[in-house]
Amino acid sequence: MNVGGQSQERAPGVPTGVFVAAVLLALVVLGLPFASAWSASPDLGHGWALPWLIGWLLWERRSSVVSAPPWELSWYAWLGLVGLAAGVLVTRLLLGAYPLLPTVLWALGFIFVIFALSAAALLGGRKAVRVLAVPLLLMLAGLPWPSVVENAVVLPLRAGLTTITVEVLNAAGVPSLANGTVIQIPGGTVGVDEACGGMRSLQASLMIALFVGEVALLGWGRRIALLGLSVATAMAGNLFRVGLLTCAANSGGEARLHAWHDPAGYLALICTLLVIGVLGWRWGGGGAMLAPSPDGNWSTGLRVSKRKLVWAVTVLAIVVSIEIFVQGWYGARSHALASQPEWRVAWPMKADGFHEDKLGPTGVEALNADVYAAASWRPPAGGERSAYTVEWRTGQKARIFSLQHRPDICLPMMGSQLIGRFDVPPVRVGVLTLPFSGLEFRRNEKLVYIFTLLWDMDEARAFVHVPVTQGWLMEFRSRWLDVCERRARVRVQLCTYQVTGASSREEAVEIFRREIEGGFMVAASDSVMRSKVPIFGQIHTGR
Asked: For residues 19 and 312, is the Cβ–Cβ distance under 8 A?
């Protein structure tokens, strides 16, 4: 029977609001990994706006959900619960160990959308699915891009942005030179990676373009055009930001660069969003872009069958049970970890020219470490030394950030030329055998030798990243092994030691081994290290 243009299901039934509440609670539990990803990665911070944007769109279109005949609950809806339970269980276990794994987050995102659309179909049939599909798919805009897209899009954009900025600065009379993604100026250097914050405004701009296109009910041609313009506007905003920060660094040094870093970013992002919003408003006719909702309570008198409510409550019970199981699965291991021997650096604070190298606010955000220390000095035998140590002690940050901050990635972007890799004999420090790796660079016509150690503090061995070139099946197997071992918390130490002044790899290795085993690194228990080993550094609260 239809009343006021809205379809109703006859008694006995239950109020529609009860069904909707069960569905929303299930979606909240399903969306918890998205919230964790938005908190863990600065580049995904815009995702926090998505629940509000999507919620507003759904509320504005609530009458459309129940203005058409609903679908009946059939056997394949119940069969789909088996697939939903299996998919949620696998993705949640993987995200417990790898919270920012793009492919798994996207898989969970599609499960999220399919369940929400299924619930919408049970309320308003095909029309509800058609009306709510795009708002729900907007959730996927808050997920990290797969590494293939990141490497194919973001890295070339950074390099192009650096080149264009240098050309503009030179034309404006500011001498500058591009080295990778670093701009060298008389007043210092500016890294494009830091200046544009990982191009995060690009993804935020795409999200807003999708939202504005849906609000304005634009045709698909104009929506695609708006997406293209959002990319161009985001690039122009980043170009403005990089240029402004470079001029600030050239005139006032690092202090002025940090002072302008956040205001320049906010200004560029606001301008980008305003341009997208104005274009959508004009293309949408310049008036109210969403039809006003009808007056009155949209759910008054509407009821759904008890079978549909049982289906929704079953989904809620499944996702809640899986969440409880995942928390218990990983929580059991955190209480069973045995204390392992660790290493610490005894910095040569009395060495000639010793000085601490501190991170700026941008570096702190990019590294996302719990402890960081770095210094440079000149040893008595001549040459130059520098080192830095990083520790990730909370959550799963080490899985992501220890892989991103490597000399073979960072130094070429700063203008150094990678000559090659070489083997380093294990270094003995107390009861520990430390497996360093070696890299040879050429910087300003000098040979620089870098020795790097990535150490698993829980297993007392080298930290092993999952290889990305071994095929998806082997990659899944490696990741699933971490799931089976319940490794939700990963504690990792990174040490990088630089030797300048050696004439060959062999000499550099000998110098390195002698200085490391001669007291630069020590192995001891946590209590001994805190009481007897002189350390310094920047200590941050893990997120």
From this structure: yes
pTM for the model stands at: 0.73
Distance CA 304, CA 294 (A): 21
Cβ atoms 350, 500 nearer than 8 A: no
CA atoms within 13 A on the CB side of 219: 4
Distance CA 297, CA 17 (A): 11
CB atoms near residue 53 (< 10 Å):
20
Give the CA distances from residue 144 to residues 27, 34, 537, in Å, rounded to whole numbers and listed in that order: 20, 10, 31
Which parts of the chain sit beneath pLDDT 70?
Answer: 1-13, 64-68, 180, 187-188, 191-200, 253-254, 285-302, 332-339, 360-363, 365, 404, 408-409, 412-415, 465-472, 524-543
User: Reduced to 3 states, what is the DSSP secondary structure of residue 433?
Assistant: strand
Distance of CA 336 to the CA centre of its chain: 29
Map tokens 């470490």 to a residue: 369
* Rounded to 5°, angle at Cα 407 from 195 and 404: 60
pLDDT score for 467: 54
CA distance 226 to 203: 14
Report DSSP state, residue 305: -
C-alpha distances in Å from residue 261, one per residue of 117, 176, 193: 42, 19, 12
- Among 368, 540, 486, smallest CA distance to 94 is for 486
Q: 3-state DSSP call for residue 283?
A: helix
At 33 the pLDDT is 94
Which token pair is 16?
């529609």
Task: For residue 374, give the 3-state DSSP assignment.
Answer: strand
Contact by Cβ (8 Å): 303, 15? yes
pLDDT at 7: 44
Give residues with Cβ within 8 angstroms of 290, minimum separation 6: 60, 61, 215, 217
Is the omega angle on the peptide bond into residue 407 within 30 degrees of 0, that is, cis? no
